[in-house]
Amino acid sequence: MRPPLLQLGALLSSMAVISNWMSQTLPALVGRNTSRLWPPDASTQVSPKEGWQVYSSAQDPDGRCICTVVAPEQNLCSRDAKSRQLRQLLEKVQNMSQSIEVLNLRTQRDFQYVLKMETQMKGLKAKFRQIEDDRKTLMTKHFQELKEKMDELLPLIPVLEQYKTDARLITQFKEEIRNLSAVLTGIQEELGAYDYEELHLRVLSLETRLRDCMKKLTCGKLMKITGPITVKTSGTRFGAWMTDPLASEKNNRVWYMDSYTNNKIVREYKSMADFVSGAESRTYNLPFKWAGTNHVVYNGSLYFNKYQSNIVIKYSFDLGRVLAQRSLENAGFQNVYPYTWGGFSDIDLMADEIGLWAVYATNQNAGNIVISQLNPDTLEVAKSWNTGYPKRSAGESFMICGTLYVTNSHLTGAKVYYSYSTKTSSYEYTDIPFHNQYFHISMLDYNARDRALYAWNNGHQVLFNVTLFHIIKTEDDT
Ligand SMILES: *[C@@H]1O[C@H](CO)[C@@H](O)[C@H](O)[C@H]1NC(C)=O
Ligand SMILES: *[C@@H]1O[C@H](CO)[C@@H](O)[C@H](O)[C@H]1NC(C)=O
Ligand SMILES: *[C@@H]1O[C@H](CO)[C@@H](O)[C@H](O)[C@H]1NC(C)=O
Ligand SMILES: *[C@@H]1O[C@H](CO)[C@@H](O)[C@H](O)[C@H]1NC(C)=O
Ligand SMILES: *[C@@H]1O[C@H](CO)[C@@H](O)[C@H](O)[C@H]1NC(C)=O
Question: Which end of the chain has fewer surrounding CB within 10 Å, N or C?
């Protein structure tokens, strides 16, 4: 990169020298203000710093993840500017070449005339000298007048000489322009090819890094829970409400399932605003009653625990029918292993960045929490993890990035007390408080799209923000 640019710098200064001459000489000759083409406006300084930089902050004050990509503004853009500048220069040189051609045609004609004039005048001069020598014999008044006129004309000779010099300069300049033009074209081609390759590589590298960054950013460790914001106050003390984490950005349907038993009516709202105002768009009458409040909507389907069973049902809203149902093997149900508040909350279905999960307890695991990853189509258990945390001592639990977070109570003073990573099959005691504003939580679920916790807080539908901690290595430029 550097050699061509340095070369360009040198060229620019030599062009500037020429341009000085141009601006002084050409306007007078061609009546065209060529100086306005000069000087080239961009600096020829080259910044040595190169490379894309991907910065990411752990979180902003609102708990949102931020990924900042800093393009190598200075150098890439300046290189871009240099290419552009080169292109402009080239164009200018070509334009000037054209001007020179025009000028040349004109001066060629004038020059011929001047040459003729000069010869004539020189001839005249010689003739007069001759006549002067013979002045004794030819002493006429007329002669003196003629001589005086001739003397007036004499200063014209150096002017014409100068004109000739100028013409020579123009010729030389033409050649220089032609040379320069060729060099510039060469540089442009070289630079163009280099830039394309470089740019392509950089874009590829950027893409990889961005994907990497996003992957790391979408997952992190829970650090803080902020809020809540009370979205609505409605329903009984126990219930569930949710949005679909896999829905598209503009699809923000809200589903509302009041009470933990004896109900099979799901209310749907087109948007959060409709939910707040109570403008229902649809209701679904499920073929079975649900148990508890730990349902989840995932990819357009509702997953819920069928009343008085450990059967998980997948119900498609669009098709209005059950797509799959399967018993969660050994899972306790009917208040055998509920959360602290009871309410048939034995089986908790949830979704995170990784997929669909069921959280429950079994006799085999001594009533401690079991985490199972479910196949969202068949409801088969893909893999299970046995934790050591007693389900009946858990207030609620939710999954973020494959880590289960368990609260120690559903009452005031509740905090996230325990976490279990399915990635490392290890647990940790935590101390992450959150504001249990209405003193009783019967549902708490993470929504990966909104990066929020949806909660049913004693007949209030509330949202918490979460702050996830990410460690991102900022890679050096390749
Ligand atoms: C030529 O252009 C320069 C720069 O734009 C300007 O300063 C100058 O007045 C112009 N001269 C004429 C004769 O137009
Ligand atoms: C060169 O000339 C063309 C046409 O005369 C004009 O459009 C263009 O702007 C000129 N380029 C430069 C760099 O002056
Ligand atoms: C133009 O280039 C030729 C060949 O490289 C060189 O001989 C000549 O001196 C150059 N002319 C000028 C005016 O630089
Ligand atoms: C969501 O459902 C669509 C079809 O409706 C399917 O193509 C897609 O793979 C599903 N996504 C996940 C993550 O299951
Ligand atoms: C979460 O953060 C977003 C973005 O700053 C903000 O608009 C929203 O009100 C916050 N929600 C809660 C529950 O704090």
Answer: C
